[in-house]
Amino acid sequence: MNLDTRDPAVETLGVLETAALLRELTAGLIAVVDFDEALDALVRISRDAVAGVSWCGFTALRAGEPAGVAASDARLAGLDDLRHGPDSPAMDAIRRREMILSEHLGRETRWPAWTGRARDFGVQGVISAPVDVDEQVIGAINLYAAGTDVLTPRHQLTAMLLAEHAGLLLAAVRDRARVAAQAGERDAALLAEGVVGQAVGVIMTQRGCPPQEALQVLRGAASALSIPLREVAERLVSTVSRARDS
Predict the structure, then answer these.
(1) Domain at 8-174: CATH code
(2) Considering the entire predicted model, what is its pTM?
(3) What is the tens place of the pLDDT at every residue in 12-37?
(4) Which helix (H) or strand (E) holds 232?
(5) Tens of pLDDT, residues 142-180
């Protein structure tokens, strides 16, 4: 049975589905740090949550060069990968900064090589929506249908909202990755520092834990005592030294 998307009940259902999708995406990506892991979660959640969409992919560019690709079905990963050729709905969406729609690939003439490969995989319709992540990374989210004329104006609205929300979430993922990298550099510097490194060694010996965990223990003590990390390290090393000398 074909549903009339102008029917108020259908419109309400579409709004609820989209809200549920955005909520699930937020929950799935809120703590992710790895960009590729975030893309994999994005395409999987989108495929499962958008009715009528059989597969989902993502194409990412960094400084004009391919920077990442994800597909909800590994068989279709090449459709989102620009290394297979730049003529594709994803590249059109990125280049033109607008949504690209093809409801019936059997009538499509814009991307002949891509369309042939897509139809071989059973894809009959596609929506590609541009995604702005940050000043370095842009991309497109691609929704694929297994049937012709399946993609409706409601799907286009969902794709638009999905692209905007995904851009915000992926930007946050990249920010968390940068913060984690900076924290890792600071930790490495601390571990190499004399007295802090010695204190970390003491904790590792006492607890049988790795360096990062020992450093967190040291940080926890500094926070609980409200004194600088280096002072806590000095006290610990001094206490251990006295115990050894006695």
Answers:
(1) 3.30.450.40
(2) 0.71
(3) 446 777 788 888 888 988 888 899 99
(4) helix 229-245
(5) 999 999 999 988 899 999 999 999 999 999 998 888 876
CA distance 197 to 151: 59
Give residue for tokens 């993609």. Answer: 151
Tokens representing residue 176 in the block: 């968390």
| Residue 150, φ and ψ in degrees, nearest 5 | -85, -35
β-pairing, 100-102 with 65-71? unpaired
CATH topology of domain 193-245: Arc Repressor Mutant, subunit A (1.10.10)
Q: Please answer whether residues 140 and 129 qualify as being in contact, where contact means their C-beta atoms are separated by less than 8 angstroms.
A: yes
Q: Domains of the chain: which residue ranges? A: 8-174, 193-245
Amino acid at 224: A
Tokens for 111? Answer: 């991307």
Which of 56, 129, 39 has the alpha carbon at shortest distance from 90? 129
CB atoms within 10 A of CB 68: 18
Strands (E), the chain: 55-62, 65-71, 100-102, 125-132, 137-145
In this structure, the strands spanning 55-62 and 125-132 are unpaired
Edge-first strand listing for the sheet containing 125-132: 65-71, 55-62, 137-145, 125-132, 100-102
pLDDT band at residue 227 under the 50/70/90 scheme:
confident
DSSP 8-state secondary structure symbol assigned to residue 101: E
Burial state string for 154-173 with b = 16 or more CB within 10 A and e = fewer than 16: bbebbbbbbbebbbebbbbb
